[in-house]
Design goal:
- The complex is a heterodimer.
- Chain A is α+β, with helices and mostly antiparallel strands.
- Chain A is built from 15 helices and 16 strands.
- Chain A has a 9-stranded mixed beta sheet with strand order 2-6-7-10-1-11-12-13-14. A 3-stranded antiparallel beta sheet of chain A has the order 5-4-15, with no helix packed on it. In chain A, strands 3-16 form a two-stranded antiparallel sheet.
- In chain A, helix 9 packs antiparallel against helix 10.
- The two termini of chain B are 32 Å apart.
- By secondary structure, chain B is of the alpha/beta class.
- In chain B, strand 2, helix 4 and strand 3 form a beta-alpha-beta unit.
- Chain B has an 11-stranded mixed beta sheet, sandwiched between helices.
- Chain B has a domain of 332 residues: Amidase signature (AS) domain (Amidase signature (AS) enzymes, Alpha-Beta Complex), CATH 3.90.1300.10.
- Classes of the chains: A alpha+beta, B alpha/beta.
- The interface between A and B is large, with 29 and 43 residues.
Chain lengths: 481, 525
C-alpha cells in the first residue's frame, strides 16, 4: 500500500457575543423561550429592512487583526439564496465578493515544529434559526431566536495534514477568539462550529485529491474522529480502485461514522448578489488603528511572557493561557502573591483537582484572586498547612468566605506549639504499642500511620514537618532505650 | 359639498380655519367611496370605523392647534404594499391574503403622527409587478376618465382613488414608473422621490435598489405637502439618505411653509420657472409617441418657454438599453425579495398534504398563490443570477445602470431638469396589455431612467387625447432637489389648467348600477 497524506481545510463559524443581533436590536441570547428574542427584521417579515450593527464590524476587525488578515476597507454584504424553514427570508445575508478579511494566518505548534496555517478569508454573516423536530407527532417547529445572531466564518487554506494538527489549530483559534473577547466559543451551545474539508493524496503528490465536506460535529473530539475516519475511508476507497465523490457528508456521533448528505450535482446554486438593502461598509485606517490599539494581549504573547518573564515551564504556561478567565486569575493572583511558579502550581494542583471534583472546566471555577492569593501566602508563611488551605479554598469558592476570618472563626491556624505536639505524639505512641513494636523491628513505614493519627487528634492543623520530626525523634528515643 | 372641487392644500386651510371638520371630510370621503368604489375598484380594504376614529383625533388636534401638520384631517389612501399595523396588507396577492402586519411602515407612522386620516389600502398589480393594475389577485381597477381603460400601474388603485375624488391624497410606490405612469393615465401629479429620501422600511419590497414611496395627488402643491411629511432620514433603512447638517430637512420645511403661505394668500406667483434650464433628450422623439402625446409635449415646451424657462435639446444615449437593464435588475432583486413567501411562517399554504418533500411543499405554496406575472419575473431574476449567467446578465445590467446614471448626472450639471413624456401613449383598454407583455415592458421606457439613476421625477398632467384620456409629462431633477422639482411643478400648474379637469361621474354611476365588478375586503384588526 502506498503512503498517503491527509489534506484538511476548516471552515469555522463563530457566534459573536455582541449585545444585539447583526441587523436588528434584538438581544443575542441562548436558551431563552422560543421566539421571544425576535422582531420583524430577524423574522424576515415583509417590508422589514436590515441595519448593520457596528459592533459586529468592530468584533470582525478585532478578529482580522488577531489572525493577521488583510482588511478590506470597502466590504460588502451579499445575499446567499436558498430555501430552508430555519431561514425566514430564504436568503442569508453573508459576504462573498468583498469579505472583510483575506489572506491571514495562524502559527501552530505541531510536535516540535512551528507551522503556519494560512487563512483564506474571514467574513461576517447572520445565523439561521433552529428547527426542533418532535418525532412523537412528527412535527417540526421553528425557533427564530437565533436568526440574525452575528457569525464570523473563518476559512482556512488546506494547510492542515492530520486530525491532530486540525485540533491544535482549532484550539489555538478558539483561545484567540476568547482572549480578544469576541465569542465564548462553546461548541455544545453551538457558538463555535466547524465544517471540515478532507482529501487524501499519495505522499509527495502536488495535486490535491477530490475533497469531501463534513458537517455536524459537536465537539473537538468528534472533529478529530471525523477526520480520521474520513481519511481512512478515502484511502481504502482509492486502494480498492474506487474514486472519491465530491460531496457533503454528515457526521453521526452515535454511529461514529459519516454519511453522504448531498453530492456536487445537487449542490445549491446560491445565486449570490450584493444585498441592495445594505450599503457598502467603509472602514477607515483610523478605525483599524483604534481597534489595533485596543486589542488585548494575545494568548501566544502571554505564553511567552509567562515563560520568559515569570519563569513558568512551557507546560505550565500552556495551561495558564488555555482560557482568558484562567489566565486573568493567574495574573491577578501573581500581582498579589508575587509568586508566579507557586501560583501556577496551585492552579495546576489544587484548582485542577477541584474542577475535576466538581466536574466542570477549570475556567468555570469562580475564584476570587484576592482570596486565592491570601491562601497561597498564608500557606507559604506557615499560617495554615496545605490540608487546611484546601478546606479554606473550597469555602472561598463555594461560600465566598474571607480566608482570614474563616481561619480565625474555625480555629484553623496551624499548630506549631512543640509541647502540644509532643504531648499528642506521646499519647498516640502510648495508644499504639503494636506500631511502636513494628518500628523497633525495622518497619519504618508505620511512621506515616502514627503521624496521621497525631494529625487527626490535632484536627489536621499541625505543622506537618514539625509533627513528622517529633514522631521520628520520639520513636528513635524509644528504640534506642 | 363636492370634495373634488378642492385641492388638498385648500382643504388644509379650510380645516385650519374651521370651515370644515376632519369628521365632515371623513364622512364625505366614506360616502363617495361607498357610492362609487364598488364599480371603480380603487380600494382593497377600507377601514370605515378607523376613518371615523382617526378623524375625531384629527379634530382634537385641530382644536388644540399645536404643531399641526397641513395633513391633519386629510383622508389618504395607502397602496396595499405598504405595511399598516393591524390592517391587512396583501400586495394584491393571494400569498398575503390574510397577512396583517404587526408593525407599520415608517411613512405610515409619520402620517399617523401628522394626523392624516388613513382611509384604506388601495389596489395594485400583484407585488407591484405590472403597468395596469390588472395583475391584482383581487379585482381590476378602472380608469375614472374611462371605465374601459386601465388606470395604469402598479399604483393604479391610489391613482384611481384620487382621480375619482374618493380621497384627495394617496401614497404609491415607484420601482419603474409605478407612481408616474398611473398619474399620467389618470390626469394626476405624482412624485418618484430621490432614492433614499423616503424610508422604505415597511414597504414590501419588489426591487430594493429601485423602490421608492411617493405621493399621488391632483397638484404639485399637494404632493409637496405629503412629500415634506414623509421624507427624511430613517435609522431603520440603511439606504436612507444622510442629512448631516440638516440642509435637506430645512429645504423641505421651507417648501411646506411656502406652499401653505401661498395657499392661504391664494397666490402661487412666487413659484416660477423663469431662468430654469430644461433639457429635452432628442432620443425621446425616436419613440413611437401617440400623436396627441407628441403634440401635447410640443405645446408644453411653448408654455414653459413663455414662463421663462430655457429649453434645449440634449443627447441621452442608452435609452434603449435602459429597459433590459431595468427588467434584469428588478427581476433579480425581486427573485430574492419574494423568496420569503414560502408558506412556512406566514402567508398562503397549500391545502394539499400529499407533497413528497420540502421542495414540493414550497413549490405548491408558491405556484398556487403567486400569479403568472410575478412567477415570470421571479424566474427571469433567478435565471439572471444563476451561476454562469451572473456576469453576462446581472453584472452587465449593473454596468449599463452606472453608465446611464453618469450620463443623467452630466446632463443635470448643465440643466435643472430633463423633460419628456411620462408614457408613450395614453391609458390602454382593459385586457389588452397582458397579452403583449413585451410591449407593456417597453412602455416603461421614459420612467425607468429615474429609478435606475435614483433621481427624482415628477409626473404632471399636460393635456388630453382625442378620446379625452389624460396625457402626462415628466420632469426629472437633480438628486435631493425634489423641492426644486415640486416648485417647478407648482409653477407649471400656475400656467396650465389640466390638473383642474375632473372626470365625469356618469360612468361611475352606471358602473355601480350594473354591478360591474369588485368585491372589497373587510378590515381585519
Amino acid at each position: 500500500m502506498k503512503s498517503y497524506e491527509t489534506v484538511i481545510g476548516l471552515e469555522v463559524h463563530v457566534e459573536l457575543s455582541t449585545r444585539s443581533k447583526i441587523f436588528c436590536s434584538c438581544p443575542v441570547s441562548y436558551g431563552e423561550e422560543p421566539n421571544t428574542k425576535c422582531c420583524p427584521v430577524c423574522m424576515g417579515l415583509p417590508g422589514a429592512l436590515p441595519v448593520l450593527n457596528r459592533e459586529v464590524v468592530e468584533y470582525a476587525l478585532r478578529t482580522c487583526l488577531a489572525v493577521n488578515c488583510d482588511i478590506n476597507k470597502l466590504t460588502r454584504f451579499d445575499r446567499k439564496n436558498y430555501f430552508y424553514p430555519d431561514l425566514p427570508k430564504a436568503y442569508q445575508i453573508s459576504q462573498l465578493y468583498e469579505p472583510i478579511g483575506r489572506d491571514g494566518w495562524l502559527e501552530i505548534q505541531a510536535g516540535d515544529l512551528d507551522k503556519r496555517i494560512r487563512i483564506h478569508e474571514l467574513h461576517m454573516e447572520e445565523d439561521a434559526g433552529k428547527l426542533l423536530h418532535d418525532p412523537w407527532d412528527d412535527q417540526t417547529l421553528v425557533d427564530y431566536n437565533r436568526c440574525g445572531v452575528p457569525l464570523l466564518e473563518i476559512v482556512s487554506e488546506p494547510d492542515l495534514r492530520s486530525a491532530e494538527e486540525a485540533l491544535i489549530y482549532l484550539e489555538k483559534l478558539r483561545s484567540i477568539l476568547q482572549f480578544i473577547d469576541v465569542s465564548d466559543c462553546r461548541m455544545q451551545e453551538g457558538s463555535l462550529r466547524a465544517d471540515v474539508n478532507v482529501s487524501v493524496r499519495p505522499i509527495g503528490s502536488e495535486e490535491f485529491g477530490t475533497r469531501t465536506e463534513m458537517k455536524n460535529m459537536n465537539s473537538f473530539k468528534a472533529i478529530g474522529r471525523a477526520i480520521e475516519k474520513e481519511s481512512r475511508r478515502q484511502i481504502e476507497l482509492i486502494e480498492e480502485g474506487g474514486a472519491i465523490r465530491q460531496e457533503t457528508r454528515r457526521w453521526d456521533e452515535n454511529k461514529d461514522a459519516s454519511f453522504p448528505m448531498r453530492s456536487k450535482e445537487d449542490a445549491h446554486d446560491y445565486r449570490y448578489f450584493p444585498d441592495p438593502d445594505l450599503t457598502p461598509v467603509l472602514i477607515s485606517s483610523d478605525w483599524i488603528e483604534k481597534v489595533r490599539e485596543a486589542l488585548p494581549e494575545l494568548p501566544q504573547d502571554r505564553r511567552s511572557r509567562y515563560i520568559l518573564e515569570l519563569g513558568l515551564a512551557e507546560y505550565e504556561a500552556d495551561l495558564m493561557v488555555s482560557h482568558p478567565d484562567l489566565s486573568n486569575l493567574f495574573e491577578e493572583t501573581v500581582k498579589l502573591t508575587d509568586k508566579p511558579r507557586e501560583t501556577a502550581s496551585w492552579i495546576m494542583g489544587e484548582l485542577l483537582q477541584l474542577s475535576k471534583d466538581k466536574s466542570c472546566e477549570l475556567a468555570e471555577l469562580e475564584v476570587e484572586p484576592k482570596a486565592f492569593a491570601r491562601i497561597i501566602i498564608m500557606t507559604a508563611d506557615g499560617t495554615i498547612n496545605r490540608i487546611t488551605a484546601r478546606k479554606v479554598l473550597l469555602a472561598a469558592i463555594d461560600e465566598q468566605v474571607d480566608p482570614e476570618e474563616y481561619i480565625a472563626k474555625q480555629g484553623l491556624a496551624m499548630i506549631s506549639d512543640t509541647s502540644l505536639l509532643e504531648q499528642t505524639v506521646a499519647q498516640v505512641l502510648a495508644d499504639n504499642p503494636a506500631s511502636v513494636e513494628d518500628y523497633r523491628k525495622g518497619k519504618t513505614k508505620v511512621t506515616g500511620f502514627l503521624v496521621g493519627q497525631s494529625m487527626r487528634l490535632l484536627g489536621g492543623k499541625a505543622d506537618p514537618q514539625l509533627l513528622n520530626k517529633i514522631v521520628l525523634v520520639k520513636l528513635d528515643n524509644i528504640v534506642q532505650n | 359639498m363636492d370634495l373634488r372641487k378642492f385641492s388638498a392644500s385648500r382643504l388644509a386651510v379650510m380645516l385650519s380655519d374651521g370651515k370644515i371638520s376632519a369628521s365632515e371630510l371623513a364622512e364625505l370621503s366614506i360616502e363617495r367611496i361607498n357610492k362609487i368604489d364598488s364599480g371603480l375598484g380603487a380600494f382593497v380594504t377600507v377601514d370605515e370605523s378607523g376613518i371615523r376614529s382617526q378623524a375625531l383625533q384629527a379634530d382634537a388636534l385641530l382644536a388644540a392647534d399645536k404643531n399641526r401638520s397641513p395633513l391633519t384631517g386629510l383622508p389618504l389612501a395607502i397602496k396595499d404594499n405598504i405595511s399598516t399595523a393591524g390592517i391587512r396588507t396583501t400586495c394584491a396577492s393571494k400569498m398575503l391574503a390574510d397577512y396583517v402586519p404587526p408593525y407599520s411602515a415608517t411613512v405610515v407612522e409619520k402620517l399617523r403622527k401628522s394626523g392624516a386620516v388613513i382611509a384604506g389600502k388601495s389596489n395594485l398589480d400583484e407585488f407591484a409587478m405590472g403597468s395596469t393594475t390588472e395583475t391584482s389577485a383581487w379585482h381590476i381597477t378602472r380608469n375614472p376618465w374611462s371605465y374601459e381603460h386601465v388606470p395604469g400601474g402598479s399604483s393604479g388603485g391610489s391613482a384611481a382613488a384620487v382621480a375619482a375624488g374618493l380621497v384627495p391624497l394617496a401614497l404609491g410606490s415607484d420601482t419603474g414608473g409605478s407612481i408616474r405612469q398611473p398619474c399620467s393615465y389618470c390626469g394626476l401629479t405624482g412624485l418618484k422621490p430621490t432614492y433614499g429620501t423616503v424610508s422604505r422600511y415597511g414597504l414590501i419590497a419588489y426591487a430594493s435598489s429601485l423602490d421608492q414611496i411617493g405621493p399621488i395627488a391632483r397638484t404639485s402643491a399637494d404632493c409637496a405637502l405629503v412629500y415634506t411629511e414623509i421624507a427624511g432620514t430613517d435609522g431603520r433603512d440603511s439606504t436612507s439618505m444622510i442629512d448631516n447638517n440638516g440642509n435637506f430637512s430645512r429645504k423641505l420645511g421651507k417648501l411646506k411653509d411656502d406652499v401653505m403661505a401661498a395657499e392661504r394668500a391664494n397666490d402661487f406667483s412666487g413659484f416660477s420657472l423663469a431662468g430654469k434650464r430644461i433639457a429635452v433628450p432628442k432620443a425621446f422623439a425616436g419613440y413611437e409617441l401617440q400623436q396627441e402625446t407628441a403634440e401635447a409635449l410640443e405645446q408644453a415646451i411653448r408654455v414653459l418657454e413663455q414662463a421663462g424657462a430655457v429649453i434645449s435639446e440634449c443627447e441621452l444615449p442608452l435609452l434603449e438599453e435602459s429597459i433590459p437593464a431595468y427588467y434584469l435588475i428588478a427581476s433579480a432583486e425581486a427573485s430574492a425579495n419574494l423568496s420569503r413567501y414560502d408558506g412556512v411562517q406566514y402567508g398562503y399554504r397549500t391545502a394539499r398534504s400529499d407533497y413528497a418533500d420540502l421542495a414540493e411543499f414550497y413549490s405548491l405554496n408558491r405556484a398556487e398563490a403567486l400569479g403568472p406575472e410575478v412567477r415570470t419575473r421571479i424566474m427571469l431574476g433567478t435565471f439572471a443570477l444563476s451561476s454562469g449567467y451572473y456576469d453576462a446578465w446581472y453584472l452587465k445590467a449593473q454596468k449599463v445602470r452606472r453608465l446611464i446614471r453618469s450620463r443623467y448626472n452630466e446632463i443635470l450639471t448643465e440643466y435643472d431638469f430633463i423633460l419628456g413624456p411620462t408614457a408613450p401613449r395614453t391609458a390602454p383598454l382593459l385586457g389588452v396589455s397582458l397579452d403583449d407583455p413585451l410591449a407593456m415592458y417597453l412602455s416603461d421606457v421614459f420612467t425607468v431612467g429615474a429609478n435606475l439613476t435614483g433621481l427624482p421625477a415628477l409626473a404632471l398632467p399636460c393635456g388630453f387625447d382625442n378620446s379625452g384620456l389624460p396625457i402626462g409629462l415628466q420632469l426629472t431633477g437633480r438628486a435631493y432637489a425634489d423641492d426644486e422639482l415640486l416648485r417647478a411643478g407648482i409653477a407649471w400648474q400656475q400656467q396650465t389648467e389640466f390638473h383642474l379637469a375632473l372626470p365625469s361621474d356618469k360612468e361611475a354611476e352606471s358602473a355601480v348600477a350594473a354591478q360591474l365588478s369588485g368585491v372589497r375586503g373587510e378590515v381585519e384588526s
